[in-house]
Amino acid sequence: MAYAPCLLFDCDGTLVDSEPLLAAEMANALSAVGLPFLASDYMGEFRGTRFRHIVAELQSRHGQVDPDHLETMEVEMRRNLMRRLETELLPIPGAPEALAALAGHPMAVVSNGPETKIRASLKSSGLAECFDDRLFSGYTAKCWKPDPCLFLHAASVMGHAPEDCVAIDDSIVGVRAALAAGMTVIHLNRYPDAEETPEGAIMISSMFQLPTIVARLVKARRMAVSLS
Questions:
Q1: Shortest CA distance to 200 belongs to which of 214, 183, 213, 188?
Q2: What is the mean pLDDT of residues 118-123?
Q3: Which residues share a beta bridge with 166?
Q4: Average pLDDT value for residue range 45-61
């Protein structure tokens, strides 16, 4: 059988352009409970980070908030975000074309977000059929990037060794998690002037580049096997 690595895609910022919507809703919700937060804070410091970690970090800086208020705030924030995802969300430029070109590969989504959010994002952006139920959420697996466990869990369920997986992620948090899992990692760096790709990862600046990079990886692997 021809070598075809398993492709593990992040969702927010990699497949769908949800991060500006998420950052705006976080800013509204967190500021309303006394935790000063701007949309630019998410995009600059916390992109790809689990929401509960962001709340904990903000409380360490600005003081504790009543847990009941935090729970109510999170429920309302996620409700507002879901409404916006259903009506405003678009795929990342080049993502539909890349997925179509790579359709012969096993592929899945690996995200820190809740599974309901992943499903809503893929459906509203028109990408759901590319993945069916091959969705791996940190909330379902009870482990989150930057811990490599989420990527390792996805690889195991997909039936592939980590070294036979290629992870595609736009966030430094996700890139580091996949590197720690022992995978080949492609960093979708859409902010190359402000963000440095971690050592060991392959940088692309557009999803339109992804099929070419994957093809090169496959060719290199086949050559290595033929010479061994």
A1: 183
A2: 95
A3: 7, 184
A4: 91
